[in-house]
Amino acid sequence: MSRRTTRCVTHVLLALLYCSGIEASWEEWWNYDGISGPAFWGLINPEWNMCNKGRRQSPIDISPDKLLFDPDLVERHLHIDKHKVSGTLYNTGQSLVFRVDKNSKHHVNISGGPLDYKYQFEEIYIHYGIENNKGSEHQIHGYSFPGEIQIYGFNKELYNNMSEAQYKSQGIVGLSLMVQIGDTPNPELRIITSTFNKVLYKGFSTPIMHISISSLMPNTHHYMTYEGSTTHPGCWESTVWIVINKPIYITKQELYQLRRLMQGPEERPKAPLGNNLRPVQSLHHRTIRTNIDFKHTKGHNSCPTMLRKNHYRANKWSSDIG
Ligand SMILES: *[C@@H]1O[C@H](CO)[C@@H](O)[C@H](O)[C@H]1NC(C)=O
Ligand SMILES: *[C@@H]1O[C@H](CO)[C@@H](O)[C@H](O)[C@H]1NC(C)=O
Predict the structure, then answer these.
(1) Residue 103 pLDDT
(2) Whether the CB of 118 sits within 6 Å of ligand 1
(3) CA atoms within 13 A on the CB side of 86
(4) N or C: which end of the chain has fewer CB within 10 A?
């Protein structure tokens, strides 16, 4: 989506950008603060109006008392192919993004869990804070982790590629891994963190060889799932989110390297890349399902559940038959 334009728009804030003769693609124009920040994404580009108008947006704060245990999910483990893939890590000026090689022959499939289709792994977004007290986009009970790794795939049964799938029904899966500071870092994550010094500035990129997405995953089958959107523009409400119920770990040194990355190009670095997070969005009336059966967890006896205690029959003899 590298649409280019020099047309003037009337919005007073945007006029600053458009009418000053700057010609740039839409992709360049959003960031995480000020007049191109999350509150304005939906105004910058009409195709992104879901960012402002949508009611099934991401990220959200996952409050434990909103979780609904769904017994149908218990037998359905999430499946991610184990083999390794290669790709490129980019500093886009907005995020740190890993994209899998377009011509790789062995795609990584993501399926099972709450997914009704087979999805093909495509990219990873890394969100993180400048301080330890925030960084993840999704929050758990109001708590933001120092970072979040989002693994995106597209529905390969219905669509040809990510750009087609992202705005279509059931187009995308987003796996969310919370990142916590610890002394036993995830070895697969280390393959990525060891390249941070090669992507210091916007536009820099570096190849990453032989990484296994499945080995990035923390050691648990437990997750929370809900229907939402991409957390970057255009905020399309096409994403099934699966938030894994256990963090992966990064060391202080790795986080320090990450925080040295800058938003701008080498000659004009602007601000640090960190704090690249969209604020949490309202849940509205969505359900967050989980495969964690709290009944078997001490002290959580009263958590809501979808276990069927009541059985209904179709009412064949409705009153208007007379
Ligand atoms: C992934 O799914 C495709 C079909 O969509 C299949 O051809 C391929 O073998 C699968 N990959 C693996 C590693 O199972
Ligand atoms: C994605 O698929 C659509 C539909 O087949 C096609 O028109 C488009 O060129 C593809 N985009 C990319 C980036 O491959």
Answers:
(1) 86
(2) yes
(3) 8
(4) C
Dump strand ranges (E) for the chain.
4-5, 24-25, 61-62, 67-69, 78-80, 85-91, 96-100, 109-112, 119-128, 139-140, 147-155, 172-181, 205-211, 223-228, 239-244, 248-250, 288-290
Q: Which of 82, 112, 108 is nearest to 291 (CA)?
A: 112
Pocket test for ligand 1, best of 81, 105, 107 (most atoms within 8 A of CB): 107
Handedness of CA 132, 65, 117, 215 (dihedral sign): positive
- The residues lining ligand 2, judged by C-beta closer than 6 Å to any ligand atom, are 160-161, 163-164
pLDDT at 304 over 70: no
CB 117 less than 6 A from any atom of ligand 1: no
CA of 99 to the centre of ligand 1 (A): 19
Active-site pick, 32, 119, 128, 159: 159
161/309: higher pLDDT: 161
Ligand 2 atom closest to Cα of residue 161: 1
Count the residues in the chain.
Answer: 322
Question: Ligand 1: distance of its center to the CA of 302 in Å?
Answer: 42
Ordered domains of the chain (ranges, CATH): 3-53 (no CATH), 61-321 (3.10.200.10)
Q: What is the DSSP string of 62-127?
A: E-GGGEEE-GGGTT--EEE--S-EEEEEEE-SS-EEEEE-TT-SSPPEEEETT-SS-EEEEEEEEE
Active-site residue, 32 included: no
pLDDT in tens, 105-115: 889 999 999 99
pTM of the model: 0.88
Q: What is the C-alpha to C-alpha distance for residues 221 and 83, in angstroms, rounded to an integer?
A: 19
